[in-house]
Write a structure and sequence with these properties.
CATH architecture of one domain: Alpha Horseshoe
Largest sheet: none
Number of strands: 0
CATH topology of one domain: Serine Threonine Protein Phosphatase 5, Tetratricopeptide repeat
Structural class: mainly alpha
Order of helices and strands: HHHHHHHHHHHHHHHHHHHHH
Radius of gyration: 23 Å
Length: about 425
């Protein structure tokens, strides 16, 4: 089918149709039909192309153009086209589609707050004008926006999207694989690495041979982080290099920056501090080139950790404070918590114990508010180690007990089924 691509639509568009990741518009079907010599009805069996009952939204030329722009990764153009359209009255189903594509484009442009507004409005419209597959897409992109905001609700929304996907017919393996990859990525951020690996592997299995390069790059990236945390540095580096190669092919500088951040952390763990610094500075440059600040705080935190490891504590404090300020401005609460914990380590190394205590307590309070037991247990354990080294065994014991209690609670919650969805 890829031979059908031409000036009317790209090879990537055809691939996504083949992979079941998007539904072609009627105009696209007519082009495909004319080039294959088959009637349009040949491609409409059991409404697999468009499960809607009235077809108005997909037939609308404005929605077709928005869909094409998103498929071609032209998100700025999609936003520029879609936002003015919403200033005029339109049928609810058409508005739901427009808001879905505008919301998706905003999320992909690292503007999650704006994207959420449109995606949630689309879902409200769908309560009165049901479209099962559009509901799946909106829920998945809502989860992606929440993930970018480091909002703990991302996982439950992504799980809801997966449930909707698996109960809606016909099943689209490309969409299911994408949602599985998103869930795995959320588990990486939550430090539930075994679950992350399981979901990544299932995503690869569901996609089969129909894998698009950007998602494969993100999958390799996530697997790199998970295996790094499990101590398999060799496999982690292998997956990181694969991810970076795919990001470079796609010219996605924001994802390339994230991949370089992970490679920098891996190089640190191997003791290659100079190379780690070069890689992390390259990541900062790529964030600037991409024109986005979302997740840039994590690179600043990595540079702070590098300074901690080489004993340049004052420099480390500067990097971490910049990271915390940026994370606060963007409401990246996990990055804020990580920053306060790292700042606590830096102050402790400089014998500033009271400042260190304040930072560890801030980190613990922030993580407690997010409800992430794994991350909270790690924070208590890190503080306990500092207190032990300081000679404050009584306080250290209290934090070791809290860490153990949180770990046991997590195991108890997870034990019934490691694949909750």
């Amino acid at each position: 089918m890829s031979r059908l691509a031409g000036s009317d639509f790209t090879r990537q568009t055809v691939f996504l149709i083949e992979a079941g990741q998007t539904r072609p518009s009627m105009r696209t079907l007519e082009i495909i039909a004319s080039r294959t010599g088959k009637p349009v009805r040949h491609f409409l069996r059991e409404s697999s192309v468009n499960p809607r009952s009235d077809g108005r939204a997909v037939a609308d030329a404005r929605v077709e153009e928005l869909q094409a722009l998103c498929l071609q990764l032209q998100f700025d153009q999609a936003i520029a086209l879609g936002l003015p359209l919403l200033e005029h009255p339109m049928a609810p189903t058409v508005e739901a589609y427009v808001r879905h594509y505008v919301g998706q484009a905003l999320v992909r442009s690292m503007r999650p707050d704006e994207g959420l507004e449109h995606l949630r409005r689309a879902q409200v419209l769908l309560e009165h004008e049901p479209d099962p597959w559009l509901a799946v897409e909106c829920a998945d992109w809502e989860a992606s926006a929440l993930y970018l905001k480091e909002d703990a609700r991302a996982l439950s929304v992504a799980e809801r999207a997966l449930t909707l996907c698996r109960t809606t017919q016909p099943r689209l393996p490309g969409t299911e694989a994408r949602i599985l990859e998103h869930i795995a990525t959320i588990h990486v951020k939550n430090h539930t690495y075994d679950r992350a690996i399981a979901f990544y592997e299932e995503a690869l299995h569901v996609a089969g041979t129909m894998r698009d390069l950007p998602r494969l790059g993100r999958t390799y990236h996530g697997l790199s982080i998970a295996y790094q945390e499990r101590g398999d540095i060799g496999r982690a580096i292998e997956y990181t290099h694969k991810a970076l190669a795919l990001y470079a092919l796609e010219h996605d500088t924001a994802l390339l920056a994230r991949g370089e951040n992970e490679l920098g952390l891996l190089l640190m763990r191997q003791g290659q501090m100079e190379r780690a610094g070069e890689t992390l500075r390259s990541a900062l440059a790529h964030f600037d080139e991409a024109g986005t600040e979302v997740a840039k705080s994590h690179v600043l935190l990595s540079l702070g950790e590098l300074q901690l490891r080489v004993g340049r504590y004052a420099d480390g404090i500067v990097f971490v404070k910049k990271a915390i300020d940026l994370a606060k401005r963007l409401d990246e609460r996990l990055a804020q918590a990580s920053g306060h914990g790292l700042l606590g380590q830096l102050y402790e190394r400089g014998d500033k114990h009271e400042l260190a205590d304040k930072q560890f307590r801030l980190a613990i309070r922030l993580l407690g508010g997010l409800g992430l037991r794994e991350r909270l247990a790690e924070a208590h354990a890190a503080y306990a180690e500092v207190l032990d080294a300081r000679g404050d065994g009584r306080s250290a014991s209290r934090h070791w007990k809290l860490a153990a209690k949180l770990a046991l609670r997590r195991q108890s919650v997870d034990a019934p089924a490691t694949r909750a969805v």
